[in-house]
């Protein structure tokens, strides 16, 4: 038995191989879908690239569903890898989730590229059933069925993670640190932040995916038997509850990479404290209650829900972000940290997450939403915290894991190229939004088109940066000694 096998709850031979698969596939898909994104932005520009509205909406559906799903799986890999340090997880189940997800991907991609399904990744009811002849009922069923299968795949691994956490910590509440927070147990500085975050993700994402499964099944029933028409507002609530929670859970999973890897670079521990635990409890509750900020323009919604959505939008993202960004900066400050691809990307992720929340909060105000709703302001803010927050967490994790502590220059330069491109791309969306350019339009007015061209060019820069980071990782990943995480630094 090696030293690391003693240290980890799940033996190394079982911790690493499937994580490599998740990351390898994830990086390739991210790059491919970025190309699709750049193509869409070019189609909105003045350039000669013209793909036609039908293909545009197919690509938009592919890009949206693909990016959200891949982000979810990559963030799951971060979460699983670090949680398995502390609790004993089942590698076969983790692999099973990947296999089921890949089947789901085949269904989703097939429904779009062969079946021409183009109702957007949000499959807003009753659009999947009202294609005006553009796609068949079978295509809609395959897409919706693919999403459902993806949800089942997540629930499967979450079940294993939940059982393992309860075995080790007694309950999910205890893993979240509630007895420490409320003074019933002394603060245990060795309680891992990764376990706190995992507990939060399990609570919110099981609820989110359950809501998603319900609305997907209702959509399937409606497709098979149209007279069975559920309430449209209920469907919209369920869809946005699911979508909001799922994409937020990706960030709260991936941030574990910051908690686990930055301390190794700074050679200082990241310990839990009462403010840290309070922030994670607060965000657990708020992430679930804030989703009505997606329905601010639905006048049929009860006004108390809109008001709750607005108020919680101010506060929802803040607590964990503040404790994480503040502790992260304190950790790094004067630590003599080595700036390589992994550490640069992880610090970049804190910046991107923080800055990305600002336009999101602005849009969460009812009066602003009256103007900004369904403009490119919205893709502006979510691309910000996904491209500059979430992806750098995943890419930073992958660089660290693949490098055995020895990273080349390409990745670090790539991180800079990536940051510049992603900032420009988000600005191209935000400026468009501020000029009231609508989102989800295949063709743009002439006066808006230069912003599409800027976006397409920036998307190309992001892709170059991503490849500079990802290619060295992909080359080293198969032979990487992932156990080196505790040894190098
Ligand atoms: C090079 C990088 C990227 C480019 C150029 C890009 C470009 C685009 C464009 C042009 C749209 C359509 C905007 C509209 O007119 O409404 C879009 C939508 C979207 N993108 Fe990206 N994107 C990139 C990266 C990402 C990443 C990393 C994610 C998530 C992890 C993501 C998630 C989404 C989602 C969820 C939508 C919404 C689709 C919908 O409205 O149904 N994108 N992107
Ligand atoms: Cu939201």
UniProtKB/TrEMBL annotation:
PROSITE patterns documented for this protein: COX1
Keywords: Electron transport, Membrane, Respiratory chain, Transmembrane, Transmembrane helix, Transport
Domain Cytochrome oxidase subunit I profile: 21-489
Coiled coil (residue ranges): none
TM region(s), chain numbering: 21-43, 55-82, 94-119, 139-159, 194-225, 237-259, 271-291, 311-333, 345-362, 382-403, 415-435, 455-475
A single GO BP: aerobic respiration
InterPro entries, per database record: Cyt_c_oxase-like_su1_dom (IPR023616), Cyt_c_oxase-like_su1_sf (IPR036927), Cyt_C_Oxase_1 (IPR000883)
GO molecular function: cytochrome-c oxidase activity; heme binding
Entry GO terms, CC: membrane
Name of this protein: Cytochrome C oxidase subunit I
Gene source species: Thiorhodococcus minor
């Amino acid at each position: 038995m090696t030293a690391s096998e003693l240290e980890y709850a799940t033996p190394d031979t079982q911790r690493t191989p499937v994580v490599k698969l998740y990351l390898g596939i994830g990086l390739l898909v991210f790059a491919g879908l970025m190309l699709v994104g750049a193509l869409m932005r070019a189609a909105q520009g003045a350039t000669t690239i013209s793909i036609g509205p039908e293909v545009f909406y197919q690509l938009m559906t592919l890009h949206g569903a693909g990016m959200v799903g891949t982000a979810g799986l990559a963030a799951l890999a971060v979460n699983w890898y670090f949680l398995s340090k502390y609790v004993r997880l089942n590698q076969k189940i983790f692999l099973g989730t990947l296999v089921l997800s890949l089947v789901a991907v085949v269904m989703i991609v097939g429904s779009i590229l062969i079946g021409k399904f183009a109702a957007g990744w949000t499959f807003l009811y009753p659009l999947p059933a009202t294609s005006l002849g553009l796609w068949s009922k079978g295509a809609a069923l395959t897409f919706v069925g693919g999403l459902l299968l993806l949800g089942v795949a997540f629930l499967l691994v979450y079940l294993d993670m939940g059982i393992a956490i309860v075995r080790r910590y007694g309950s999910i509440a205890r893993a979240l640190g509630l007895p420490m927070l409320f003074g019933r147990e002394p603060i245990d500085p060795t309680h891992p932040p990764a376990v706190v975050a995992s507990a939060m993700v399990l609570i919110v994402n099981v609820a989110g995916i359950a809501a998603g499964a319900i609305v997907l099944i209702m959509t399937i029933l409606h497709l098979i038997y149209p007279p069975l028409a559920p309430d449209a507002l209920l469907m919209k609530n369920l869809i946005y509850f699911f979508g909001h929670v799922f994409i937020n859970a990706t960030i709260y999973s991936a941030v574990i990479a910051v908690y686990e890897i930055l301390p190794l670079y700074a050679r200082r521990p990241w310990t839990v404290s009462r403010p840290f635990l309070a922030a994670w409890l607060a965000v657990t509750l708020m992430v679930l209650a804030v989703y009505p900020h997606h329905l601010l323009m639905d006048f049929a919604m009860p006004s108390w829900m809109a008001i709750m959505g607005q108020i919680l939008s101010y506060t929802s993202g803040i607590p964990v972000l503040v404790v994480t960004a503040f502790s992260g900066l304190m950790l790094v400050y004067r630590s003599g940290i080595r700036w390589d691809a992994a550490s640069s990307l992880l610090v970049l992720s804190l910046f991107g997450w923080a800055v990305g929340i600002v336009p999101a909060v602005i849009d969460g105000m009812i009066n602003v939403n009256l103007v900004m709703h369904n403009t490119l302001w919205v893709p502006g803010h979510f691309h910000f915290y996904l491209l500059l927050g979430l992806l750098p967490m995943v890419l930073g994790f992958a660089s660290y894991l693949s490098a055995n502590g020895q990273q080349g220059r390409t990745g670090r330069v790539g991180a800079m190229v990536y940051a510049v491109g992603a900032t420009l791309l988000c600005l191209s969306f935000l400026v468009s939004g501020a000029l009231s350019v609508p989102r989800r339009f295949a063709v743009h007015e002439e006066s808006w088109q230069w912003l599409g061209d800027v976006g397409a060019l920036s998307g190309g820069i992001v892709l170059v940066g991503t490849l500079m980071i990802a290619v060295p990782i992909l080359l080293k990943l198969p032979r990487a000694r992932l156990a080196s995480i505790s040894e190098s630094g």
